Amino acid sequence: MSPPVDKAAIASSFGNAADSYDDAAHLQQQVAAEVMASIPESISPTVVVDLGCGTGVHTAELQMRYPQAMVLGCDLSFGMLQHATDCHAQPLWCGGDAESLPLRSNSIDLLFSSLAIQWCDQFSAVLSEVYRCLRPGGQFVFSTLCEGTLHELRTAWEQVDRFSHVNDYPSFNSLEVDVERSGFRVAQLSTAPRRLYYRRVSQLSRELLALGANTLTGERRPGLMTPSRLRALQLGYEQFRDDQQLLPATYQVVYARLIKESELC
C-alpha cells in the first residue's frame, strides 16, 4: 500500500511553482482544452467550480464562457490561489481539499477539474464529495492520470536505485470501479495516452520542477542529483529514444463526464 499523500508538501510545491507553472504547462493546457470542449453546449449553469484551479487560467475561461454564473476557483495551494487572485479579478477563489470540500451540499451545477485530483489520496472520496456538492442534474467534467503515466521515466530510474522517483497512479480499472460505485451516471469515461518529447532527460526534469509536479509520494531518496546518477538516468532513458532522436514522456490521461441523476429519476 502506498504511503498517505503529503498534502502540505504538495500545496507548498505547487505554490512555489506558481510563477513558472503556466509557461511549463504544455500538456496541462492541451488536456484542459479537451476537457473544456467536452462540456455540453446545452447546459447553462448558475454555479461553477474549478477544482484544483491552480493559477486560475481555466477558471477565468469558465467565467468568460458563463458570464452570468458564479464561478469559483478552489485549490489546495494558497500560493497558487494568491497567484490566481493577482492575475484574475473576476472569479471567486477559495482554499480547499478535494476530499473534503468546503462547499454546501446540492449547491453546484458544474464542477470542472483538469489534471488535479491525481494528487488526492482516494479517488472514491473525491467522487463522494463532488456528488454531495452537485445539484441533481449537475455534472462533473474532469481529467486525471492513471497507471502508465511517465512509465519511461520510472523504468529509467529503476536503472539507478530502488527508490520512488515517479508518483504512483491507480489503474484505469480501479477508477472505473470507483465510478460504478459512486452513484453517478456515466456520460464519458475513457483513457488515452498523451506524449511530450524532449532532447534530454534534464529537460523533462526541469519541466516537472517548474510545474511543481516533482515527486512527492513514495520512499524518496534523500540528497541531490549527482553527475554519476544523472548519467545513469540518462543511459536508462536512452532505450526509449525514437527515430527523430527524441525522448518521449507518456501521460495516461483519463477523461470523464459524470452526471448526478435527478431525484425524480
- Report strand %: 15-25%
Structural shape = globular
Task: Indicate the mean pLDDT.
Answer: 93
Just give the CATH class of the domain at 7-150 and 167-196 and 251-259.
Answer: Alpha Beta
| Strands in their spatial order, largest beta sheet | 3-2-1-4-5-7-6
Structural class: alpha/beta
N-end to C-end Cα span: 38 Å
Helix content: 25-40%
- Overall strand count: 7
Output the number of helix runs: 10
Radius of gyration: 19 Å
Briefly characterize the structure:
With 265 residues, this protein is of the alpha/beta class. The chain has helices at 7-16, 18-24, 26-37, 57-65, 78-87, 123-133, 151-157, 172-182, 201-211, 227-237; strands at 47-51, 70-75, 92-95, 108-114, 134-145, 185-198, 247-259.
Description:
This protein is an alpha/beta fold and about 260 residues long. The chain has a domain at about 5-150 and about 165-195 and about 250-260: Vaccinia Virus protein VP39 (Rossmann fold). Helix content is about 35%, strand content about 25%. It is built from 10 helices and 7 strands. It has a 7-stranded mixed sheet with strand order 3-2-1-4-5-7-6, sandwiched between helices. α4 links the parallel β1 and β2 (about 70-75). The mean pLDDT is about 95.
Characteristic terms for this protein:
265 residues, alpha/beta, Rossmann fold, seven-stranded mixed beta sheet, 10 helices, 7 strands, 37% helix
